[in-house]
């Protein structure tokens, strides 16, 4: 009986991983939100957030998890000099977050302080499921649009992210 149970759990785990790997998040359409939150740590994320602002699909952006030494001028050097005006008027740099969970906490404080009810979440496709889960836990009353930056994650990266996602769900389910 124990072997059958372990085999069933192993099969469910493998099927879940396969589903996780083939159903990565996609870029959002042109939905308008009040704000955009960009999680640092992956290429293309800042560029996607800036494009959302430039298209008028959000009025303000939080870059969550930015290194405390990063300035708007540093971002302008990376994103192009034509972005400096937008960076000055409409971008806040959050440096309190160190992981996905604290990204959601930092964003919650920012969103509540500004009174926003809708936000576009920008992160990598492989990271979106866990990030969106954390954000929905911290911001149950906020509309969250998932806007994933498409990548080509390795099988190892997907494996690690799947396990982090499962562990985080289990921790919340167990109220830890």
Automatic annotation (TrEMBL):
It holds the Pfam family DUF218. GO terms for cellular component: plasma membrane. PANTHER family: ENVELOPE BIOGENESIS FACTOR ELYC, INNER MEMBRANE PROTEIN, PROBABLE PERMEASE. It comes from the Bacteria. It comes from Sphingomonas kaistensis. This is Uncharacterized SAM-binding protein YcdF (DUF218 family). Residues 34-138 form the DUF218 domain. GO terms for biological process: Gram-negative-bacterium-type cell wall biogenesis; peptidoglycan metabolic process.
